[in-house]
Amino acid sequence: MFNKILIANRGEIACRVIKTARKMGIKTVAIYSDADKQALHVQMADEAVHIGPPPANQSYIVIDKVMDAIKQSGAEAVHPGYGFLSENSKFAEALEDAGVAFVGPPKGAIVSMGDKITSKKIAQEANVSTVPGYMGLIEDAEEAVKISNEIGYPVMIKASAGGGGKGMRIAWNDDECREGFQSSKNEAANSFGDDRIFIEKFVTQPRHIEIQVLCDAHGNGVYLGERECSIQRRNQKVVEEAPSPFLDEATRKAMGEQAVALAQAVGYTSAGTVEFIVDGQKNFYFLEMNTRLQVEHPVTELITGVDLVEQMIRVANGEPLSITQDDVQLNGWAIENRVYAEDPYRNFLPSIGRLTRYRPPAEVAAGPMQINGKWADDATEGATAVRNDTGVYEGGEISMYYDPMIAKLCTWAPTRDQAIEAMRNALDSFELEGIGHNLPFVSAVMDHPIFIAGDMTTAFIEEQYPEGFEGVELPEDTLRKIAASAAAMHRVAEIRRTRVSGRMDNHERHVGSDWVVSLQDKEFPVSIDADQAGSTVSFADGTALRVSSDWTPGDSLATIALGEDDGLVLKVDKITQGFRIRSRGADLKVRVRSPRQAELAQLMPEKLPPDTSKMLLCPMPGLVVKIDVEVGDEVQEGQALCTIEAMKMENILRAEKKGTVSKINAGAGDSLAVDEVIMEFE
Predict the structure, then answer these.
(1) CA distances from 580 to 302, 355, 433, 576 (A)
(2) Which of the residues are catalytic?
(3) DSSP strand pairing (349-350 vs 514-519)
(4) Across-strand partners of 162?
């Protein structure tokens, strides 16, 4: 076995590989850019080598710099993770020439299947059904428009070397095709050093289901079930689960066998993923093969008990697979939510900054799958597991130079409903402050009836949130639970305040039992009857809830028991006359007032936000790529005004209504903060 492995990556996946290598007794080497000097993967590795400036195209994807790091460290093998150089055949060739093992497939397989154009041609030759498209290289935007018209809109413009949603655009007309072609080329060049583009028909209402394969150099190959990845935003997966709630055993077997056959046809070894789109009649079409470890691999590990990173390392070391297809058993259900540094209330635009608070839920291995990849001996019926793969820490900084993913939160349970409920509780207890993040959004998805029913397609987010995510309106029964909890917590805080020392003589403060709780435009008059074990909160309609908790003022997390079988996990911050409470995707200002205070509050005027309707504000921290208009130009609704780049993604800002540009405050190359005024209109 190898003595030392270099991880040619950063962040979460580098930390993930280090954990398995450590378990196997293998020393690890991290590489890092200037921006990652204090990163978690650097701290976890046995040693680390600096490789250059923050931009990936000056550090992480520069083959010569990575090869120098290998030489300096004496590493015998390299794990590329995902993204960066993971599907770069030139990198695999450089390692081979240097006598260093590549923890991945042979360079020939990367060339054949890692390139989306080549892989589609091979799939067609192997009589695998593929999506209609143009497989040749496209020189310019006008050729892209011509091809798109021949295929028929809508079309998907994709980077040949792409991945992770980078270099991908959907175009519904000629103008969007021209814009999408150029942006895709730019993103592909910046992210992968390869700006080749191809176009295929965009199939509406599909499900995205992928098969995990594992092959060795001795002719053995297995598939480890499927992953449902249909909930996507901007072609980037957000929620994944295994198995799929849609497939039956016959379809799973057919897809799995086809995936293994395709992999073996190109001499594939290591872990890889064959992606399919599946229609409502369970017809499946080959989409592409990712010749690397997938971001969402933990859900497969959770239902199979197979540590994919360990298997990759063993295959790279020349060992045969230790499992056969008959050994692969799918146990229970696993769900993964990707936690991103992006603001769902600003159309999911990237957010950067320092993590002032980062307290993920505790990892629990009470289910059948241990966090480190081993099966638990003490698994109990109904037990659940929580796993959090991450590459950040409290006080660390989210950089504008890299992917905005903070963590991958996973839960396992014997059934899908139990796994969803475990995920709801895990999300509610995930404390994340200092940046915009998507925890409210994925919490909302976990409660959405379409997701609960398992009927989602890749258009789920687009169809269910057409105007973007604007928060969650909780049902009244949940509001009552939160109101009762807030009233009980407020009473505890009021009693604490009566015990403050240094009070005036002859003055004693009494805590009343009657309160009015207002939240989400509703008011609940309540009465509290407290005892040593908790409080009984009675509502005006005669109903009551028993509330008990060990919460004390100042705690940012409250676990509330409501009776014997119900409860809530609340994130709590103090505000005037109440709390800011976040739960189940909702962000609520909960006011707890005496009846007289509530009466007076009704007379207070509403504070209105400032008028910014005649300004274009920068929606995220980023770099201005170009300004598309000049002072005096008349713009129409939907017209492109400027392009902002952040976290390797180009974002085109468009006019919300007709107007005339009166002032431009920024130019190409400028670095802007959130809400900085880019231009003004008459």
Answers:
(1) 35, 19, 13, 9
(2) 288
(3) unpaired
(4) none
